[in-house]
């Protein structure tokens, strides 16, 4: 029973979902209207986990043959290991996705429900079944799905798509390519075995690093846009330091490519994004110390 429970949890890609929940919570803090209603905050985050987890579970199902050929995934994912039958995984994905969309529709509003449904369809079918196999820019376009999480949370709280929410969207959107391509460079041989047109396989290491550098510059620019709606210097100072370190690691990998430098970019990119969210929340707190009371 415990093994199957863990297998179902793994279908949702919980490590990725931590990022989704963090981005959604950050949006809720910045939007502010639900901060005195912890139950509603919990329900928004639960809805995000269920809908995002459903999209990830469908990704597991559609890519189970590919995952079985990759050293990175064949022993880490439940379907290649045989822990679950694909039909069980499909029923699980549909169930949690439907519950998640229902939470947004019945507790919040149809706008947030529509965004969550679009996220599931786009990531599971458009990205996984088509884009990932059609273009080396797959991760760029596919990154839209993950970047919609804070927009959906903001919509749930406010019933609208305010421009402030889209600044968080743009940060995650430009973060995704350098983050994922760094990992793709580490596991380039795996992707060669799958036949997927990942950028390092199609364009090579040098072109991938060049594009990573370009997206990283845009990421840093986007990382400063929340300053337009924050009122404390904490986020600005933290972003200057965090961005300088990020660009240094990316350009170091560009000029001196190695497995170590690729892994460093990948690992720090996670720290970078979580730190941005943390300092946005702290910035809100120090600007308005009573906002959580």
Helix count? 15
Give the total of domains.
2
CATH class of the largest domain: Mainly Alpha
Shape: globular
**What would you give as the CATH superfamily of the largest domain?**
UbiA prenyltransferase
Number of strands: 0
Task: Calculate Rg over CA atoms.
Answer: 19 Å
Taken in chain order, the helices and strands follow as HHHHHHHHHHHHHHH
SSE order and pairing:
Layout: H1 2-11, H2 14-31, H3 38-62, H4 64-68, H5 78-81, H6 86-108, H7 110-134, H8 138-147, H9 149-158, H10 163-186, H11 188-194, H12 199-202, H13 204-223, H14 233-255, H15 259-287
Helix pairs in contact: 2-3, 2-9, 2-15, 3-6, 3-7, 3-9, 6-7, 7-8, 7-9, 8-10, 9-10, 10-13, 10-15, 13-14, 14-15
Description:
- The protein folds into 2 domains: 1-159, Tetracycline Repressor, domain 2, CATH 1.10.357.140; 162-293.
- It has 293 residues and is mainly α.
- Helices cover 81% and strands 0% of the residues.
- The protein has helices at residues 2-11, 14-31, 38-62, 64-68, 78-81, 86-108, 110-134, 138-147, 149-158, 163-186, 188-194, 199-202, 204-223, 233-255, 259-287.
- Helix 2 (14-31) runs antiparallel to helix 3.
Looking at this protein, list some descriptive labels.
mainly alpha, 2 domains, Tetracycline Repressor, domain 2, 15 helices, 293 residues
Short description, anyone?
The protein is mostly helical. It has 15 helices and no strands.
């Amino acid at each position: 029973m415990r093994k199957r429970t863990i297998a179902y949890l793994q279908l949702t890609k919980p490590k990725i979902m931590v990022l989704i929940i963090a981005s959604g919570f950050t949006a809720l803090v910045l939007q502010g209207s639900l901060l005195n209603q912890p139950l509603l905050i919990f329900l928004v985050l639960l809805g995000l986990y269920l809908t995002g987890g459903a999209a990830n579970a469908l990704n597991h199902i559609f890519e189970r043959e590919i995952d079985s050929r990759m050293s990175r995934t064949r022993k880490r994912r439940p379907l290649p290991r045989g822990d679950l039958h694909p039909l069980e995984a499909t029923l699980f994905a549909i169930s949690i996705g439907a519950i998640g969309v229902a939470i947004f529709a019945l507790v919040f509003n149809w706008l947030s429900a529509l965004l969550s449904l679009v996220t599931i369809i786009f990531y599971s079918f458009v990205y996984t079944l088509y884009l990932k196999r059609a273009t080396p820019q797959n991760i760029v376009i596919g990154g839209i799905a993950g970047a919609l999480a804070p927009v959906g949370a903001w919509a749930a709280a406010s019933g609208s798509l305010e421009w402030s929410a889209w600044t968080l969207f743009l940060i995650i959107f430009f973060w995704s390519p350098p983050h994922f391509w760094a990992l793709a460079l580490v596991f380039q041989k795996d992707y060669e075995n799958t036949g997927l047109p990942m950028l390092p396989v199609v364009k090579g290491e040098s072109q991938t690093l060049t594009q990573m550098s370009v997206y990283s510059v845009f990421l840093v620019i986007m990382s400063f846009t929340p300053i337009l709606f924050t009122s404390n210097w904490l986020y600005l100072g933290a972003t200057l330091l965090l961005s300088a370190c990020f660009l240094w690691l990316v350009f170091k990998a560009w000029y001196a490519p190695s497995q170590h430098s690729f892994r460093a970019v990948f690992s720090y990119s996670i720290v970078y994004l979580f730190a941005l969210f943390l300092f946005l929340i702290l910035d809100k707190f120090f600007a308005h110390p009573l906002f959580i009371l």
